[in-house]
């Protein structure tokens, strides 16, 4: 892509996608909170003028459940109202930040016929993501190590997104018969060129350097420096975003996308993924593969052919519509898509994809429909139609949090 610089400085813009920040005067008096339940999967580290939410479900790579998201939402609402708290942080425990929603748990609920609990999960998650996108205080997400799908959705709407040399981000939803959600259609559609379409359709992963280059992250630091960085943040007595930004930048590094980086292939991505249909994208990749014999084209084609044909078409349309919608409208549309997926009215691809990749792990899903040619426009339309009862639509507190809209 023209104008995309190879040299990327870790110190970047402090403004998050869709975030709203307002400064408040705060007291410097210590305010500590204690939680007595070791079974909690969201822990809290309380400092004098900041709070840190710690995702603590390491056996599941900190995958999100309804109870976890409910707890996060309650904590964040209380912290926002507490004038003693200047800013908020979030991080994961062990070897992951957050691997996204617990797809296996949703799969089990569907097998039990409990669609209502699945709906509750998505409603709770998307409301929390919206809260993040309109949060009134500076927010720092330390996206160290594994970050997948909606794990990014609970971090990217905030003001600061710190990544490291251990960070790995991916969107494997189409490969399990689902779609990138939790606001993904908003921020992926705003990446340079057609990089968002590429990531959403192929499930390919990017590292911390590539996240800085594409704007998904604001700051980069080596994993080994995190203890020092967190100690520095913990000593801050402020609600001033510029002070927090300087503390983050103090531990930043100059980083370079290497020769194998997807950033180096942005022109090829734009050339192939700019088309209006998945079939046209695949045809463009096949033509380039025949002319150049570059292994990347073959690998990309393989990833697309492994994905659910229906999910590919739903995902592409979702990303394209996201280009012209606000964060809240993207969440409302994604909610409809998610409910259509778990209702299994058109296809059971979500259950089948989770079974094949995460439960039985035979990696041989039987997609329905099995080919792109058999996915009709009417099938895709079902995922985007308004819910039959208006009360069933996603309810976000827009008038309270964005009264000017």
UniProtKB/TrEMBL annotation:
Pathway: Amino-acid degradation; L-valine degradation. Pfam families: ECH_2. GO terms for biological process: L-valine catabolic process. Hydrolyzes 3-hydroxyisobutyryl-CoA (HIBYL-CoA), a saline catabolite. Has high activity toward isobutyryl-CoA. Could be an isobutyryl-CoA dehydrogenase that functions in valine catabolism. It comes from Trapa natans. Belongs to the enoyl-CoA hydratase/isomerase family. Keywords: Hydrolase. Residues 51-384 form the Enoyl-CoA hydratase/isomerase domain. It is an enzyme of class 3 (hydrolase). InterPro entries: ClpP/crotonase-like_dom_sf, ECH_dom, HIBYL-CoA-H. It catalyses: 3-hydroxy-2-methylpropanoyl-CoA + H2O = 3-hydroxy-2-methylpropanoate + CoA + H(+). This is 3-hydroxyisobutyryl-CoA hydrolase. GO terms for molecular function: 3-hydroxyisobutyryl-CoA hydrolase activity. The keyword RNA-binding does not apply. Its EC number is 3.1.2.4.
């Amino acid at each position: 892509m023209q104008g995309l610089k190879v040299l990327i400085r870790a110190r970047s813009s402090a403004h998050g996608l869709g975030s709203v920040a307002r400064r408040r005067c705060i007291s410097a008096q210590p305010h500590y909170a204690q939680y007595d339940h070791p079974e909690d999967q969201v822990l809290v580290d309380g400092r004098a003028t900041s709070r840190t939410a710690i995702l603590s479900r390491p056996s599941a790579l900190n995958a999100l459940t309804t109870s976890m998201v409910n707890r996060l939402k309650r904590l964040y609402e209380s912290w926002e109202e507490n004038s003693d708290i200047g800013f908020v942080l979030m991080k994961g425990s062990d070897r992951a930040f957050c691997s996204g929603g617990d797809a296996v748990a949703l799969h089990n609920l569907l097998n039990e016929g409990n669609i209502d609990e699945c709906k509750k999960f998505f409603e709770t998650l998307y409301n929390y993501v919206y809260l993040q996108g309109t949060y009134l205080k500076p927010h720092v997400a330390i996206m160290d190590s594994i970050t997948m799908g909606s794990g990014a959705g609970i971090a990217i709407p905030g003001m600061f997104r710190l990544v490291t040399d251990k960070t790995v981000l991916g969107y494997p939803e189409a490969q399990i018969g689902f779609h990138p959600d939790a606001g993904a259609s908003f921020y992926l559609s705003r990446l340079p060129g057609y990089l968002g379409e590429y990531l959403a359709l192929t499930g390919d992963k990017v590292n911390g350097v590539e996240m800085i280059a594409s704007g998904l992250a604001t700051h980069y630091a080596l994993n080994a420096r995190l203890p020092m960085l967190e100690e520095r943040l913990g000593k801050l007595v402020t609600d001033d975003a510029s002070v927090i930004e300087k503390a983050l930048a103090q531990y930043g590094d100059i980083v370079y996308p290497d020769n194998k980086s997807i950033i180096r292939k942005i022109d090829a991505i734009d050339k192939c993924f700019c088309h209006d249909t998945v079939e046209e994208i695949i045809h463009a990749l096949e033509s380039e593969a025949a002319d150049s014999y570059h292994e990347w084209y073959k690998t990309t084609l393989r990833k697309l052919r492994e994905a659910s044909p229906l999910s590919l078409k739903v995902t592409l349309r979702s990303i394209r519509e996201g280009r012209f919608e606000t964060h809240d409208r993207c969440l409302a549309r994604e909610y409809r898509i998610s409910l259509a997926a778990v209702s299994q009215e058109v296809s059971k691809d979500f259950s089948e994809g989770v079974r094949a990749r995460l439960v039985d792990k035979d990696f041989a899903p039987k997609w329905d429909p099995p080919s792109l040619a058999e996915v009709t426009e009417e099938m895709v339309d079902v995922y985007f139609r308004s819910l039959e009862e208006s009360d069933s639509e996603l309810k976000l507190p827009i008038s309270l949090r964005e009264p000017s809209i």
